[in-house]
Amino acid sequence: MAELVRVRRLTDQEGQRLQQIVRRGSTSSVRYRRAMMLLASAGGNRVPVIAQLVQADEDTVRDVIHRFDDVGLACLDPRWAGGRPRLLSTDDEDFVIQTATTRPAKLGQPFTRWSLRKLVAYLRKVHGRVIRIGREALRGLLARRGVTFQRTKTWKESPDPDREVKLDRIEEVLDRFPDRAFAFDEFGPLGIRPTAGSGWAARKHPDRVPATYHRTHGVRYFHGCYSVGDDRLWGLNRRKKGAANTLAALKSIRAARPDGAPIYVILDNLSAHKGADIRRWAKKHKVELCFTPAYASWANPIEAHFGPLRQFTIANSHHPNHPVQTRALHAYLRWRNANARHRDALAAERKERARIRSEKGICWGGRPLTTAA
Fold first, then answer.
1. pTM above 0.70?
2. Using an 8 Å Cβ cutoff, are 233 and 225 in contact?
3. For residues 104 and 113, is the Cβ–Cβ distance under 8 A?
4. 45, 301 in Cβ contact below 8 A?
5. What is the CA radius of gyration of the chain?
6. pLDDT for 52-90, tens place per residue?
7. Burial track 71-101 (b if 16+ CB lie within 10 A, e otherwise)
8. CA-to-CA distance for 8 and 151, rounded, in angstroms?
9. Is the dihedral of CA 206, 207, 211, 216 positive or negative?
């Protein structure tokens, strides 16, 4: 049996960057789709599920995963071909990149960052080496090598002493028990305001949504539950995060597997996720809580599915109130689950589970599909 294709374990910086691109979107659709592929793979989603999620060919997903394993986040940018031959040698280009990514103060220059003009001037008079390159050629070289002009940022390494142990356990659960693996997380805050998005329209005549300055509706949080084996997403909007809402979500997940066998729920380290009442209930009902390491919520399989949720229910919307917003969100979930790719081997199990699902499970996930009744 061929080995399953999965992205290598992400570093904290890689996971946070991919999560940022998926949640906030990107000006490049290529970067957004590729980031979603990688984040979904890191969360334990299989290649067929990822291909359905991003509407791409399965071989394309595999190529992106292998490319990331080779070059890291540089795989997010497409490789364009064409143009005249390079005038600089590979060694010259390496020197330019090394200089551009070195703080000017370390090279004896009286400033804290390079501009293109300053960098070009420095390269032409650097001691022992003269490189003649124009500003636009330099701009293209930097872009080709993945060096961009960015804001300086702080970063966080996971301080969790059990980081590797937790990630190993999550990977083991997703590999050995995919049909009994679930994920839970909150998505939000969701406010009532016109939200910009994108869509097809006549040239220079985009759709418009009104501006508003009076937002008196408060916010909601979508408490999402995801079945890894079934590729099924459901949830409910609540006014706030809290242990009671978390426990209700876990009970909904437990109701999806009413046979009493152990199940595994992957979730982050929010305090509302690990109270004493939740731990007692989980132990009593054979629910193992698999917590992601601190600052590593990207390891949660549900994270990759929140991106489309924002793109197709929040972006480009103008909901008048929270009930309307909630109905729109649940309508999208019903459409998503009806069109998700399911394994044929799980068809009979889905029908039986839909028949015996408890009333609370129906409330959380919407009415069962007619095809699964």
1. no
2. yes
3. yes
4. yes
5. 24
6. 888 889 999 999 999 999 888 888 887 776 666 667 788
7. eebebbbeeeeeeeeeebeeebbebbbebbe
8. 28
9. negative
